């Protein structure tokens, strides 16, 4: 298939702007830069190429947590599953769920009447294996929403249950973080089986099961589905049913390769599965009879991540199409290998640390461990970003109305608190905060406070359901992926910011940039930044007077 052109914006039928190479560069650099930047924007517009700024305002943008200069990157490594290969979640995870439930049924678990529900969970939630709950923590670890079995818990119940503890992912015996879309099938099966455990339909002969034991049973059933190979055999036989094709993806990698980057494929999948799926997803979109292997300098299958980044394992070269292997100690360009370690890759390429960018979908296995142990630069692929971006756009009106109501309550509440303090001081025979407040008569003070209290109560009745509904365009139970509560970031978003230098919805988004792109992180705002923003909007003594009053 011919290469598709990603520049979809129509080119204007008018004389194209030109960069005048003879134009003088004399004068203040500020003026020279302003003129050149304006001309560059005009030319980009005429060419139909989006500017970096406009690309960031797109669901297909690449978003930057830590500044990354692609010119300093010598090698780019890629995971395969849910990174280079985007599966249809309902199809892939649905079949994984089916095999899991079949295995549970074989050992006596009651699974009749259950069906895969992909909306039950989202990436970034955490399973509480002690309580049989699924929780959504914020960036600090405070639980904001929770579900027991398949039933959402009330805010009061959540507060009573988790008000005195934080989610700590280091306690692996209790908490299980849903790092990737591969976690969806397991989480759905587990939460449904929690319901069966609670209602007593799990047979006594299966043993005295608690929620932890149940989690292990579900995990074993799903593990068998993967190990026995039936699931992957089915996918390999009909990949078109499970894989969403992306014609732009191979072209993005081709740009990087032609720009001099060493491209690596490092996947936990075995050779036969990798070859079959990559052929299906890549070969038809590459030019000049190229095959997927031609894109990569080194291919490593059965990599055993995260151990691949943590320790050294033997490396084997795959020498035949049937997958026969022989031991080797150093990878060579064009080679296909099994196992090994990241340090072997570094030594083979003579490239180390922050010269390598690794791109994957698993926040722990791919992103966290390659950064923590090797200081590789990292990129996270999170396909749900496109849906969340759209949901946020369509929620702007709702969120703006909610912010307005919250601000109104804050002002009303502040006045109520000031009057309450004035009343408190009055009962102790002390003057209020100001002369005007001191001169209020008792009846006026009491009536004002009563009226304000009624207003706040009515505002609460309006705000509460709006807060519950926030994010429902993304997921009715859990809200937005990146947010926990109305104001704060989710625990997943905190992990992304901490470990992923850049993040985006799909690898093909690199095609909308260049292999030489300088990704600059945005300014990080702090709580006290609001004063400088306030001063930037207003001039005059009124601001200074108000600040003097506060001081």
From TrEMBL:
The entry's keywords: Hydrolase, Magnesium, Metal-binding
Superkingdom as given in the UniProt entry: Eukaryota
Binding site residues for GMP: 81
Cofactor: how bound: Binds 1 Mg(2+) ion per subunit.
Keyword Metal-binding listed: yes
Cofactor(s) needed for function: Mg(2+)
Residues annotated as binding Mg(2+): 79, 361
CDD domains: HAD_cN-II (cd07522)
Active site: 79, 81
GO molecular function: 5'-nucleotidase activity; metal ion binding
Pfam families registered for this protein in UniProt: 5_nucleotid
Family: Belongs to the 5'(3')-deoxyribonucleotidase family.
Name used for this protein in its record: 5-nucleotidase domain-containing protein 4
């Amino acid at each position: 298939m011919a290469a598709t052109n990603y520049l979809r914006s129509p080119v204007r039928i008018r004389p194209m702007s030109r960069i005048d190479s003879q134009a003088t560069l004399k004068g203040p650099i500020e003026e020279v830069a302003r003129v050149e930047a304006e001309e560059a924007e005009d030319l980009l517009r005429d060419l139909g190429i989006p500017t970096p700024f406009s690309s960031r305002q797109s669901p297909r943008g690449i978003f930057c947590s830590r500044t990354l200069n692609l010119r300093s990157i010598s090698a780019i490594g890629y995971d395969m599953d849910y990174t280079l290969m985007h599966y249809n979640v309902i199809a892939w995870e649905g079949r994984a769920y089916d095999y899991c439930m079949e295995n549970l049924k074989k050992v006596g678990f009651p699974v009749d009447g259950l069906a895969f529900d992909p909306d039950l969970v989202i990436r970034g939630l955490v399973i509480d294996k002690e309580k049989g709950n699924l929780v959504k923590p914020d960036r600090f670890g405070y639980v904001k929403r929770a579900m027991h079995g398949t039933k959402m818990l009330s805010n009061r119940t959540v507060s009573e249950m988790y008000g005195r503890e934080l989610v700590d992912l280091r306690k692996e015996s209790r908490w299980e973080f849903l790092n990737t879309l591969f976690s969806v099938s397991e989480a759905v099966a587990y939460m449904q089986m929690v319901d069966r455990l609670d209602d007593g339909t799990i047979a006594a002969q299966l043993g005295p099961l608690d929620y932890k034991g149940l989690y292990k049973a579900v995990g074993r059933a799903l593990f068998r589905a993967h190990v026995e190979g039936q699931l992957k055999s089915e996918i390999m036989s009909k990949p078109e049913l499970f894989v969403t094709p992306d014609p732009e993806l191979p072209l993005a990698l081709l740009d990087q390769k032609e720009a001099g980057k060493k491209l690596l494929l490092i996947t936990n999948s075995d050779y036969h599965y990798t070859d079959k799926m990559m052929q299906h997803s890549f070969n038809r979109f590459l030019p000049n009879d190229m095959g997927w292997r031609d894109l990569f300098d080194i291919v490593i299958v059965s990599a055993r991540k995260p151990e691949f980044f943590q320790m050294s394992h033997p490396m084997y070269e795959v020498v035949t199409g049937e997958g026969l292997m022989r031991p080797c100690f150093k990878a060579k360009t064009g080679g296909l290998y099994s196992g090994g370690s990241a340090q072997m890759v570094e030594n083979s390429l003579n490239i180390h640390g922050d010269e390598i960018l690794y791109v994957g979908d698993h926040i722990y296995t791919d992103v966290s461990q390659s950064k923590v142990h090797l200081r590789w630069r990292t990129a996270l692929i999170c396909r749900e970003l496109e849906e969340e971006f759209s949901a946020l756009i369509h929620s702007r009106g709702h969120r703006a109305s909610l912010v307005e109501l919250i601000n109104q309550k804050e002002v009303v509440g502040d006045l109520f608190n000031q009057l309450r303090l004035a009343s408190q001081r009055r009962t102790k025979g002390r003057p209020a905060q100001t002369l005007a407040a001191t001169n209020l008569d008792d009846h006026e003070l009491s009536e004002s406070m009563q009226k304000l209290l009624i207003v706040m109560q009515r505002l609460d009745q309006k705000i509460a359901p709006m807060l519950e509904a926030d994010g429902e365009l993304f997921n009715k139970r859990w809200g937005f992926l990146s947010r926990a509560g109305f104001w704060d970031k989710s625990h997943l978003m905190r992990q992304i910011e901490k470990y992923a230098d850049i993040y985006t919805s799909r690898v093909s988004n690199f095609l909308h940039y260049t292999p030489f792109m300088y990704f600059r992180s945005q300014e990080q705002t702090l709580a006290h930044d609001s004063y400088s923003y306030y001063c930037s909007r207003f001039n005059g003594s009124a601001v200074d007077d108000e600040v003097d009053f506060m001081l």
